[in-house]
Amino acid sequence: MALVYVDKDPWLGEHDACERNYREIMELFTTRSRERRTSNEYARLSSKIRLRMKQYSSEVYQLKEKLSVSSSLGSITFEEAERRTRLVEQLQSREIQMQQAFQNKDEAAARDRSALIKPSVFAEAGTTGWGTDEEEILSVPAPGVTVTDMRQQQQEILRDQEAGLEELSKVISRQKAIATTINSEVDFQNDLIDDIAQHADNTDAQLNSRTAQIRTISQKDRTCVYWVIIILLFIAIIVVAVV
Question: Where is the T-SNARE coiled-coil homology domain (predicted)?
């Protein structure tokens, strides 16, 4: 059987494409590390990294399956099969490293979410100057209270109101960050659903590959039977001729 030329083998081209995908994913990791975990850009990069990692996983799986078929059919030498097996193992090792790095980032993001959902200090600030403050400002001064004292009291009330507004602004900002985090979680759940669909497709591809291998083995078995019958007929003809 003729061997496939290694320098023209499509398997090696797919391997190079998988290598490029790995380098691009690592560049996305580097870019994401410069962003705040609560920013929209961080969430967008995280979603993109998840998709590229799924693509990388699918490419590694396809390379492994094609290598298995090539080895079983004998279209490549044993040494070349061993070399490609080591290449696939290296790709799988990188996949594990990327998943661990991504998981560590997700755990850090979870800690940030816990910090965002902690009890607000806004309640501790109170509502001084809200509700009955106008009554206090407009109330008749008590005996012995000067106009200067009233003005100081009004300024203190205004400062308390400004502090309350600042706390309210912080609460609103925190709620916005929580909403962004929830949106990221929704994207992550959608990616999990896509992962399930991808695994189903991979299983279907594996079944098709195994079916093709069984058909090839079955065809080889039939060929062996034919050769046995031909040899037996040839021996019978020789025996008849001798007799």
Answer: 155-217
Length of the chain: 243
Domain ranges of the chain: 6-242
Nearest residue to 155 via CA among 135, 130, 137: 137
Q: How many CA atoms lie within 13 A of 6 on its CB side?
A: 8
Q: Is 5 exposed, middle or buried (0-12, 13-18, 19+ CB in 10 A)?
A: exposed
Q: What is the pLDDT of residues 89-148, one digit of tens each?
A: 999 999 999 998 888 765 555 555 555 544 444 444 444 444 444 444 444 444 555 777
Burial of 94 (0-12, 13-18, 19+ CB in 10 A): middle
Q: How far apart are CA 34 and CA 42, in angstroms?
A: 9
pLDDT in tens, 12-27: 999 999 999 999 999 9
- Chain-centroid distance, C-alpha 44: 12
**Beta carbons of 67 and 84 less than 8 angstroms apart:** yes
99: Cα separation from own chain's centroid: 7
**Residues with Cβ < 8 Å from 194, sequence gap 6 or more?**
51, 54
End-to-end Cα spacing for the chain = 40
Other Cβ atoms less than 10 A from the Cβ of 231: the count is 10
> What b/e string do you get for 196-213 counting C-beta neighbours within 10 Å, with b at 16 or more?
eebeeeeeeeeeebeeee
Its pTM stands at: 0.44
